[in-house]
Amino acid sequence: MKGIVLAGGSGTRLYPLTQVVSKQILPIFDKPMIYYPLSILMRAGICDILVISTPRDLPLFQALLGDGGDFGLSLSYAEQAQPNGLAEAFLLGRDFIGGDSVAMILGDNLYFGDGLTQLCQAATARSDSATVFAYQVEDPQRYGVVQFDPRTGQPVQIVEKPEFPPSDWAVTGLYFYSNEVVRIAAAITPSERGELEITAVNNAYLERNLLEIVQLGRGYAWLDTGTPESLHDAASFVRTIEHRQGVQIACLEEIGLEMGWLDPERARARAAILGNTRYATYLQRRIRDLAS
């Protein structure tokens, strides 16, 4: 399975923070925001990843992440000149995807929870269908919302940003699709907003009974870091977990080592480059732990 991180958009809700830099470069506590979605794809077992961003911001991601070798990844890059909708990612990434299934995650989404890795790995195994994740929210009007049949409890459709939401279960920014997604994305028409909506893709799978909607209940956290308040909340959340448990969330080098993709010597060299930081100290400790 291939992976895509969609890190485009103008980030206007974060102005003036994002007037000259992508929001996915901004820090979530001690790491750039894009580390967090990358870590989810890695935990799912995906190491061949395409990063899509704007022409202005793409050089920054290339400078930050390189070819991915420092993390045990193979990274490619593509431009999205205008924010024409999430589903456009599958058209921009058509050649990259080739004949494979594909997972896409939004570059400003943060996930956390015991069992999340297993859920994602199970989604990668469903290579002939699609899987999305739903989460209960207080403001479902901002999202694609799942409508359930009142008799059976089965999902009927996903409604994009409804004025009167049929439920409080929002579809989050993590999607697993069969290769058919490329054809589906090419066939949908722009919405009234002029965008290729990911909801249209999801409904196309749902109509074919090929969409698994996994509901993330208590014990899982999903944060959409597109506003100053949510950016602060995410940083506070990560800081609390890391200081309380003595772990690093989204340490890409650590995940690469655990997956067997990253050589320990390269990880040591990486830790040396990162200098006298908590992140580097933690990475050095994990290298020793994993070698013992």
Architecture overview:
It is built from eleven helices and 13 strands. With 292 residues, the chain is α/β, with parallel strands linked by helices. It has a single domain, classed as Spore Coat Polysaccharide Biosynthesis Protein SpsA, Chain A (Alpha-Beta Complex). The strands form four sheets. A seven-stranded mixed sheet has the order 5-4-1-6-11-8-12. A hairpin with a 6-residue loop joins strand 9 and strand 10 (155-160). Helix 9 packs parallel to helix 11 (278-291). The two termini are 31 Å apart. The mean pLDDT is 95.
Task: Summarize the topology.
Blueprint: E1 2-6, E2 27-28, E3 31-32, H1 35-43, E4 48-53, H2 58-65, E5 74-79, H3 88-92, H4 94-97, E6 102-106, E7 109-113, H5 116-125, E8 130-136, E9 144-148, E10 155-160, E11 169-177, H6 181-187, H7 198-207, E12 211-216, E13 220-224, H8 228-245, H9 252-259, H10 264-273, H11 278-291
Parallel strand pairs: 1-4, 1-6, 4-5, 8-12
Antiparallel strand pairs: 2-3, 6-11, 7-13, 8-11, 9-10
Q: Give the domain tally.
A: 1
Low-confidence regions: none
* Averaged pLDDT: 95
The sequence of SSEs as H and E is EEEHEHEHHEEHEEEEHHEEHHHH
The proportion of residues in beta strands is: 15-25%
Provide a count of the helices: 11
CATH architecture: Alpha-Beta Complex
What is the number of beta strands? 13
Helix content: 25-40%
Using only C-alpha atoms, the radius of gyration works out to 19 Å
Sheet with most strands: strand arrangement: 5-4-1-6-11-8-12
The name CATH uses for the topology is Spore Coat Polysaccharide Biosynthesis Protein SpsA, Chain A
CATH superfamily: Spore Coat Polysaccharide Biosynthesis Protein SpsA, Chain A
CATH domain class: Alpha Beta
- Main sheet specs: 7 strands, mixed
Distance between the termini: 31 Å
- Per the principal axes of the C-alpha atoms, what is the gross shape? globular
Structural class: alpha/beta
